Amino acid sequence: MQELVGRLTALDPEASESLKVIAYFDVLVNGHASMEVLLRGAAVLGGCTAGFASDRIVASVDAHGKRLTTATAPEPGRWMEHAVPGGAHAWMERQGAPHANDEMILERLAIALGIMLERSAPQAAIRKAVETVIDSDESPEDRRAAAARLLLDPGAEFVVIAEPAGSPSAHGHNTVVVTPAGAVRAVITARAEEGHGSRAGIGVVVHSDNLDHSWATALTALRLTSDREPVLRADDLGALILLMDAAGSRGADHADLAALRAAIDGSPRALPVLEAVVHTDSLRAAAAEAGLHHSTIQARAVELSSMLGFDVRTTVGRTRLTIALGLYRIATNRFS
Amino acid sequence: MSATPKRPPFDVELEAVLALLGDEIPSTVTPDMLDSLRIDQMSLPIAEIIGERPIVHSEQVIPGPDGEPDLIVSIFTRTDHLQGGPGIYHIHGGGMIMGDRHKGIDVVLEWVEVMDAVAVSVEYRLAPENPDPAPIDDCYAGLVWTAANADELGFDARRLMIVGGSAGGGLAAGVALMARDKGTPALVGQVLIYPMLDDRNQTISSHQIDGEGVWDRRSNDTGWDALLGDRRKTDAVSIYASPSRATDLSALPPAYIEVGTSEVFRDEDVAYASGIWAVGGQAELHVWPGGFHGFDLTAPQAALSVIARETRTRWVRRTLGV
Q1: Ranges A76-80, B98-102, B291-295, B317-321: which has the least confidence
Q2: Residues A234, A236, A241, A244: is their CA dihedral positive or negative?
Q3: Which ipTM did the prediction report?
Q4: Domains in chain B, ordered, with CATH?
């Protein structure tokens, strides 16, 4: 019959066929096409070799649809490339001037490959969904969709726990996020569980559509932890969380923080003494905790107060010190 | 009336091609579209189709059926051809109403190239201007001439195979029946590629492809109506025009029959293979999953197309003994 009417060959190099290219790859994606089929689609449409490289595989298909035996990816910048989620990339080996559809074909190929990879690696898909659901930059719709993919009950309560990325792998849905404080693992868990490692910030309790908020508070809580307080709950920190969150995102450089830094850098014993002062009700108790004589801590308190520019023995001074110590943790804690 | 179950799904790679070429391949061909379709579907210049392959093309005017006009045939041979190899007689497709002798010739050129076959492709008259029996008679006349001129053409008359796709497959099956009944010429095989065999258009698959895919049931009506006119679906239709009507499929050359699961011709083609086996004949049948009509030509790079073509060529090789 009309078998030769629309023989599939390369698209017209001059005419843009964006809609057709999109329709073509949409069908392949909906049909769960394999990597080779996706590459063949791009190669045949473009009339040139198309390839894919990740840390695990390198593959390419020529314009005739034949799979090539490719051992290594071409050097970066040799051909037009497009990133594929997960650290991989796709390329098209166009000789000479680019064609009107090259960009569209390559972009659609990369999107299709990304979806294929996500499907073929459920763990990767879960990590991606966790990333989305805790990211306040994502739209509420996307976060809801991600929560649905994670099968989170919209009526139930959850917390996000922030732990150093290197802590023993947490149970529950989790992913590692690069933060200003280093690599941090975000773990989504039901409120009832609250299992966590030895160093952790535990976010506020939320429903699944507010996990981004719980994550933000968990990360701040983690950044406020110390050897003295290795696990902090955002719910226990009160409005300090709000303050530290603002400081953390603004890159705080308050005069109190600068003075505190100078004091701590000037004396190795300054930090434990100041922490003892903040966490006890009296200098006597602070002395006992820091393992110092009462008169010694009295002298140190006077000395440090003069360095800081406020009297840490007063209630107001202890509040300022608490906040400055928080800023110091935010500024100096690094995780990996 | 009961609803027809949905067709088997298209192969995903093929379906994507349909999405890409959808507006160039109308699922439904109606008579009013014929003029423009015939223009759209003209073959590329033959030199372009041959390309770099070491093949020479020549044309010859040969006698038509008794009392009918002469015919043109195209002849393809390797540039370094050696006498005495196999012969291929090709009948093009196009629903009995479209196409020319270079449509689908690519398939045959591969055999010319790799098997040093001599191929002849016939320009038969098309319906509705030339209704049945003009097309089948032309095709038979071309075969008779080809066989009679085997020595001049440079092939072994004992190794002549007939091949056609779509309407060309139906005509090839009809010509094979006619050659059997007239006692000549002898054929070593018949390659029937998704052949158009049954004017009645009444199988389940013929109902499953309606308004979608390629060559749907209404297109099929258009083709058969043009070929047979008022005789269509009556007892006045010959087995040569509509081979599915043959009640005796014995004494035919070995058949290679292939068809897609998702096209009108699926059931009539499977039935034709069954009919050949039923009387002790030989046939190899391939039903390609997710194939639409003509998929191997429309999407030649698709995995299913590559497999279909390789499988077909292997059978031809085996049957021709090359």
Answers
A1: A76-80
A2: negative
A3: 0.82
A4: 12-320 (3.40.50.1820)
